[in-house]
Every structure is written in structure tokens, then in C-alpha cells.
């Protein structure tokens, strides 16, 4: 591993100032992704600023009935929080679908959002990768691409974003609070991650040296039910081939009043399915509508040589997830 210097931040503002003074710095939270990438030589920071002890550990109700989550809240704690289980079940389910118990005990809300792609070529220093080394080429496009993107990819990058939690946050219309050298700003979770275009080295709209301080969830729509479903090669400890987070509110006459749908595992960012949502809203909440909505969204898919299976997989996940939300089953994460 390349040598680096280390400091422990004393406040969010001090962390941001320390970063500004060290252009090749990285914030360190749980370290479950950053340290792995440093060992591989993919990440080579000269300076680490440990933000894991900053007082960003609270989960607090907001005045409008939502929830504000500190960036250092561990994935396990967020998944087990009473309000999250009761009011944001798709978030709890997404968190519990990620990694392992040990990893979730260490992984933070901020770090989870900023974990990097699991594309094997990104992690392999001997392979060209535009995300790791801009201009070197994309090995995955014509290589082993079963796990790669089917939506929104570019000739420069076909990697997918790996976070489960981020997919649920996009569906819940969460907002990210960022603190940077020029002050604070708020970005919708659904617009935080980028498509690769010709700059795949940039995963997000985060500016250099900005710290994620909080994630705020608005109150869920009245009467809404929600769920997260993930398809993967193993029952645990595996990233999504495809996943779907859905938030659905249906009126008494069976008409969809509110629909939010986001896919994971299909693109360089959590894929908010706006086209499907337009089909759903105002339509009858039944399997025919759900299939029509999923098909409308996935018409934009451009599968690679080995991942055409992701399109029907995502379609079926969306239809099953939405259908389950119209049934009588309790809308709670498993184990709560
Ligand atoms: C074997 C394995 C399996 C996994 N499976 C899954 C899975 O199925 N689903 C899933 O979603 N995840 C999975 N993960 C990934 C795991 O969720 C992430 O590693 C973890 O969430 C990262 O959080 P962290 O706090 O450890 O981040 P770190 O590793 O500390 O940091 C990650 C990145 O975020 C930056 N960062 C951290 N905090 C902040 C902040 N507040 N502001 C700005 N930048 C910040 C760091 O600089 C770094 O670039 C898996 C990981 C492993 C090792």
C-alpha cells in the first residue's frame, strides 16, 4: 500500500478545511470500501481524514414528519431504527440486503453512498479502465459484462453502481446535505450519482472536498406502502444483478395516487424509473399496469453481449414488488 498520512477530524468544518489543504486527501469513514481499494492500489490517497468519530451519528425526526440521518450512522443502526422499520421499510430492507452483518456494523450512511463500482476491471490495475484511468479504455464493454449496465451506459463505461441503500433513498425522494469549502448545499439523492458519459471517473456530483453530513427523508406519502427486492447470485453477501425499490399509494377505488420506482444493478447510478411512474400514476393498480409501466421504462435498455437477462429480471422484480404492495401482507422488513 502506498504510504499516506492520517489525521482525525475534530468537526465537520475542520474536516472540510483539512481536505482543502490536501488535494490528494480522502475522507475515511468505516473504511470497508476505501481501505480495500487502497490495498489493491486503485485508491492512492496521500492523506486520510478520519471522519468516523464526528458527531454525525443521530437519527432525528424533522419538523415536517420526516427523518434526518447523520452521515456516520452505521448501516446496522439505520436498518434497525424503529421509525425506519415502520415508515421507510424499503430502506430497512435495502440495508439488510447489503453486505454482511459485520460489514453493516462498520459501514456508514455517507460511505455507503460513495462506495465505488464492483466492476472487476476497475479493481484490476492491469486492465484498461476509464473510471480508474481516464482515457485508457473500457475493458468491460467487450469483456466479461454479465454484471454490467443495461441502462444509461456510454462507450466509455458500462459499470454499475453497487449500493442497495442508495436505490431506496432515490425512491423515497431523500435529500443529501453536503458541506464544502463554499458552504452547504442540498442535492436530491436521485440526482447525486451520475451517468458515465465521457467522464466515468466522476461517480457523483460531489465537488472536491465536500463532505456528506446528513441524509433527510421526507415523510412518506399518506397511505404509501414500500418494498425493496434484490436479485443476486447468492442469497447473501452478493451485489445486485437487479433490484427494485417501490413506494406505492393506492386510493380506495384502486387508482395509483403516488408511485416511485427505482432500479439498482442496471446503471451507473440508482435508476429512478420516471417513465414507469408516469404510466403508474392515475392508472389502476393491477399486474397489467405494473407490467406496462416496467416495459415502458425498460424500452430504453441497451443490453451488452452477456447481460440481456437483466431486462426481464428487472421487469419481473418491478411487477412482483409492486404487486406485493397491493396485497394484504404486512409491509415490514423481515425480522422486525
Ligand atoms: C464483501 C463485501 C460485500 C458487500 N456487499 C454489499 C452489498 O451487497 N450491497 C451494498 O450496498 N454494499 C455492499 N458492500 C459495500 C459496503 O456497503 C460499503 O463498503 C460500505 O457501505 C462503505 O461504507 P464505509 O463507511 O465503510 O465507507 P468508506 O470505505 O470509509 O468510504 C467509502 C468512500 O466514501 C467516502 N466517504 C465516506 N464518508 C464520507 C462522507 N461523510 N462524506 C464524503 N465522503 C465520504 C470515502 O472517502 C470513500 O471514498 C459490500 C462490501 C464488501 C466488502
TrEMBL record:
Database matches in Gene3D superfamilies: 3.30.465.10, CO dehydrogenase flavoprotein, C-terminal domain, Uridine Diphospho-n-acetylenolpyruvylglucosamine Reductase, domain 2
Record InterPro entries: CO_DH_flav_C, CO_DH_flav_C_dom_sf, Diverse_Substr_Oxidored, FAD-bd_PCMH, FAD-bd_PCMH-like_sf, FAD-bd_PCMH_sub1, FAD-bd_PCMH_sub2, Mopterin_DH_FAD-bd
Name by which UniProt lists this protein: Xanthine dehydrogenase family protein subunit M
Signal peptide annotation: none
Source species, domain of life: Bacteria
Residue ranges occupied by any FAD-binding PCMH-type domain in the UniProt entry: 1-222
Organism: Streptomyces oryzae
Record's keyword terms, sorted: Oxidoreductase
Amino acid at each position: 500500500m502506498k504510504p499516506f498520512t492520517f489525521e482525525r477530524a475534530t468537526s465537520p468544518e475542520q474536516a472540510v478545511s483539512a481536505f482543502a489543504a490536501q488535494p490528494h486527501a480522502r475522507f475515511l469513514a468505516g473504511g470497508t470500501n476505501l481501505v480495500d481499494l487502497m490495498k489493491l492500489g486503485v485508491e492512492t490517497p496521500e492523506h486520510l481524514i478520519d471522519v468516523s468519530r464526528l458527531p454525525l451519528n443521530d437519527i432525528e425526526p424533522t419538523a415536517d414528519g420526516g427523518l434526518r440521518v447523520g452521515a456516520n450512522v452505521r448501516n446496522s443502526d439505520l436498518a434497525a431504527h424503529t421509525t425506519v422499520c415502520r415508515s421507510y421499510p424499503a430502506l430497512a430492507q435495502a440495508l439488510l440486503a447489503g453486505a454482511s452483518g459485520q460489514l453493516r456494523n462498520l459501514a456508514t450512511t455517507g460511505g455507503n453512498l460513495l462506495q465505488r463500482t464492483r466492476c472487476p476491471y476497475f479493481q484490476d490495475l492491469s486492465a484498461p479502465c476509464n473510471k480508474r484511468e481516464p482515457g485508457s479504455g473500457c475493458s468491460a464493454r467487450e469483456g466479461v459484462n454479465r454484471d454490467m449496465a443495461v441502462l444509461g451506459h456510454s462507450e466509455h463505461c458500462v459499470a454499475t453502481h453497487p449500493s442497495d441503500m442508495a436505490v431506496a433513498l432515490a425512491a423515497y425522494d431523500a435529500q443529501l446535505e453536503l458541506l464544502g469549502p463554499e458552504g452547504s448545499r442540498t442535492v436530491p439523492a436521485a440526482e447525486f450519482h451520475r451517468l458515465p458519459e465521457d467522464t466515468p471517473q466522476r461517480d457523483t456530483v460531489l465537488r472536491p472536498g465536500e463532505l456528506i453530513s446528513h441524509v433527510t427523508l421526507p415523510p412518506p406519502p399518506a397511505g404509501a406502502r414500500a418494498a425493496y427486492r434484490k436479485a443476486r447470485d447468492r442469497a447473501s453477501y452478493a451485489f445486485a444483478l437487479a433490484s427494485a425499490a417501490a413506494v406505492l399509494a393506492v386510493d380506495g377505488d384502486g387508482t395509483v395516487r403516488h408511485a416511485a420506482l427505482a432500479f439498482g444493478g442496471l446503471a451507473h447510478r440508482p435508476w429512478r424509473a420516471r417513465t414507469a411512474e408516469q404510466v403508474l400514476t392515475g392508472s389502476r393498480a393491477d399486474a397489467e399496469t405494473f407490467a406496462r409501466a416496467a416495459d415502458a421504462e425498460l424500452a430504453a435498455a441497451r443490453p451488452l453481449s452477456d447481460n440481456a437477462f437483466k431486462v426481464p429480471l428487472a421487469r419481473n422484480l418491478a411487477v412482483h414488488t409492486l404487486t406485493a404492495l397491493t396485497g394484504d401482507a404486512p409491509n415490514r422488513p423481515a425480522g422486525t
